[in-house]
Amino acid sequence: MRFLHHIPVFAFLLSAVHAWTSTPFNPPSIPLAVRTPYLSCWLPQGSGAALNSVWPEFWTGSILGWAGFVKVDGVAYSFLGAPAVSGSTFTQATQQSFSFTSTQSTFVLSAGPIDVTVNFLSSVEPTDLVKQSIPFSYMAVSAASTDGATHSVQIYSDISAEWVSGDDSLTVNWTTTTGDILTHQVQLTSPTVYGESSDHTQYGSAFYSTPNTVSATYQSGQDIVVRAQFINNGVLANTQDTNFRAVSNDWPVFGLAHNVGNVGSTASTPVVYSVGHIRDPALEYVVAGGTQARSLYFWSKYSSPAAVISEFLGDYSAAVTRANTFDAKVQSDASAISTEYAGIVALSVRQSLGANEITISKETSGTWNTSDVLVFLKEISSDGNVNTVDVINPAWPIYLYTNPALGKYLLEGLFRYQETGLYPNKWSVHDLGASYPKALGHNDGGDEAMPVEECGNMLMMALSYAQKSGDNSQLEAYSNLLDQWTQYLISDSLIPGNQISTDDFAGSLANQTNLAIKGIVGIKAMSEIWGILGNTAQQSNYSSIASTYVTKWQTFATSTTGAHLTLDYNDESSWGLSYNLFGDKLLGLNLFPASVYDEQTAWYPTVDNSFGVPLDTRHTYTKTDWQIWTSTLMNNTAARDIFIEAVYKWASSGTNNAPFGDWYDTIAGAPEGFRARPVVGGHLAHLVL
Ligand SMILES: *[C@@H]1O[C@H](CO)[C@@H](O)[C@H](O)[C@H]1NC(C)=O
Ligand SMILES: *[C@@H]1O[C@H](CO)[C@@H](O)[C@H](O)[C@H]1NC(C)=O
Ligand SMILES: *[C@@H]1O[C@H](CO)[C@@H](O)[C@H](O)[C@H]1NC(C)=O
Ligand SMILES: *[C@@H]1O[C@H](CO)[C@@H](O)[C@H](O)[C@H]1NC(C)=O
Ligand SMILES: *[C@@H]1O[C@H](CO)[C@@H](O)[C@H](O)[C@H]1NC(C)=O
Questions:
Q1: 490 Cβ partners below 8 Å, 6+ apart?
Q2: Any residues with CB less than 8 A from the CB of 256 and at least 6 apart, and which?
Q3: In which band, very low, low, confident or very high, does the pLDDT at 2 lie, cut at 50, 70 and 90?
Q4: Is the predicted pLDDT of residue 113 greater than 80, yes or no?
């Protein structure tokens, strides 16, 4: 990763305590529609914001217009977004509760004598590559009477054109199609393929859809015109505005409404909306002799956006059932550690998987090659690199837990590129391209150099995938590269030169204790890999090198002034999170003696701040992912829970309103600038041991 630009983070220090219940807690920002790096819509919270008191935002903090109104016996209430509609009268529904699971965020708001339940479902379908690759999310709205009487209910929602660009001055055009489904489609009139603006994609189309039941109506047009039409009439005009213009020029919006009819105390059948964004091709990937255009996996099954949307909306009830099953399993597994841990995990799942896209290529005949699967990840927020090895690595537990094959497909693009010989360095590349979605490699070798870090990461992840899946094909195919990286670690990891680790924001340093752990784990991992591949001579050779290194490392890395590991050799009062020992545990290597674990267990509680244990002695900041990894190393639950409770406190403190930041200060509980990053997948570390 690279810390390129500081995205401003505005701390919310509201003293008012909100009136609704939040279960399991009130996070910094609530995932609403989070499926890909470009479909990433959140409700900023700080100390609490109702669904209808602020606008939803893209992960960067820019507004994504998404509004909702309900009419009850002719009286209009807003339930989503913060629209102002001059000349029309409506009131805000009153939020009663908010809850979230791994895949769903649910709000209940009172609109007079009706309670409206608004459920946002961003599915996690890890073993179904077609479904997991569909870049869509659901919003379902149902109503129930709370006073024993029946009431007439109409429901409305719209999106703005902010969903298709990071630049509101650009011109968009749109169409509405009717049939079994009402779909508004909107896109830039001058798209840039593979382009980005302020992290938004600059090509492809956004789609807002709902089933076209007899009572459904649509309208496109200026925000205040379309919304006033519903507020005043409870029905839309079934008209299209064809005056194509800039996103912010009289703000075109795309409205869809339903007449739900008379509603009693039994909740009405939900009105379902889908919101999504499709671009094709999705990514450009470097191959020998050029580049390859890659498309999202779902194209192997559906030939048009309309076909995907029809399938997606038709699948809603089944999707809810699958989501409830998935959520219950995660909840049950994580609760075995602690209630706080279960909350952290539930908040992490959509964010982490929402940085990934599953792709395929075309055969020369033009048909899709579904044997050619590559997963790509955007290094969100710290920068926009593609498949950053030291971002995949912290997130690795979520792939092992949900579907290890996703991890294999993430590594595959890195292996294939380096197997071409286009990358000149003897160590592992840092990433596949500086700017998502262009995975163009680094043929000049000028990527951000993290030699020990990335070699160790690749070895650990490759072995861990084979161990979890029993599939050794990747080890077989790339044993030369894996051995090449091991040679590098043999010469450079016991005494690591002055270099950066994944925590590049902390600066470079020679002889980093934790980095040496990573390198030595990598050497031992290659020993295991040679064992799997049947080369027993190299297996025992590398095993003995790793053991010898551990013994030497202990003499270099143990403080003489206190019983703990140092941050760097010969720096006696220094210390840091030795999170790379997680590799020793995950791979079952038993490489480092129990005494090291015991010593660290005894040490960390003595250096715990209000919001947790600092990353190391250079600063007071820490990382959530590394704290959770370190918590897995503790030999008792009290020491383990210090880390878990710290991350929980940070996530639930209300000190920030950005999607779950992994980097924050342990004294003030203040954000350091990262947000929405996939590394929170590492919070699932306990679930894979
Ligand atoms: C919108 O713009 C795109 C890109 O210029 C163009 O291909 C498409 O035909 C336009 N659609 C409409 C409805 O004007
Ligand atoms: C499909 O992809 C696989 C994996 O990259 C490749 O080995 C195979 O040759 C491809 N098939 C065709 C027909 O292109
Ligand atoms: C790194 O540690 C080794 C072993 O203690 C020592 O010989 C070497 O001087 C150290 N290098 C630096 C740059 O501190
Ligand atoms: C063990 O591996 C190292 C590093 O590759 C190599 O230098 C050495 O010759 C090997 N030893 C044996 C006995 O194969
Ligand atoms: C944990 O570490 C402490 C401190 O070294 C040690 O006294 C204790 O026996 C260890 N407990 C277990 C369960 O290994």
A1: 523, 542, 545
A2: 156, 157, 158, 182, 184, 208, 209, 210, 216, 217, 218, 236, 273
A3: very low
A4: yes
The mean pLDDT of the chain is: 96
Which of the listed residues 362, 372, 373, 417 should we mutate to test ligand 2's pocket, taking the one with most ligand atoms within 8 A of CB?
Answer: 372
Q: Is 598 in the pocket of ligand 5 (CB under 6 A)?
A: yes
Average pLDDT over residues 408-430: 98
CA 507 centroid distance within chain: 26
Question: CATH 1.50.10.10: does it fit domain 336-688?
Answer: yes
Q: Mean pLDDT throughout 546-555?
A: 98
Residue ranges around ligand 1 (CB below 6 Å): 173, 175, 187, 189
Q: Where are the domains of the chain?
A: 28-278, 336-688
Q: Which ligand is nearest to the CA of 374?
A: 2
Confirm or reject CATH 3.30.390 for domain 28-278, answering yes or no: no
DSSP β-ladder status, 181-188 and 171-177: antiparallel
DSSP string, 174-238: EEEE-SSEEEEEEEESS--TT-EETTEESSSEEEEEEE--TTEEEEEEEHHHHHHHHHHHSS---
Closest-approaching ligand to the CA atom of 415:
2
**According to the model, what pLDDT value does residue 15 have?**
38
- Ligand 3 site: residues with CB under 6 angstroms? 495, 510-511, 556, 569-570
Give the CA radius of gyration of the chain.
26
Q: Helices 513-533 and 451-469 sit at what angle, rounded to 10 degrees?
A: 40
| Ligand 4 atom with minimal separation from the 486 CA | 5
Whether 112 shows a pLDDT value over 50: the answer reads yes
Atom index in ligand 3 nearest the CA of residue 498 equals 13
**Residue 561 pLDDT level (bands cut at 50, 70, 90):** confident
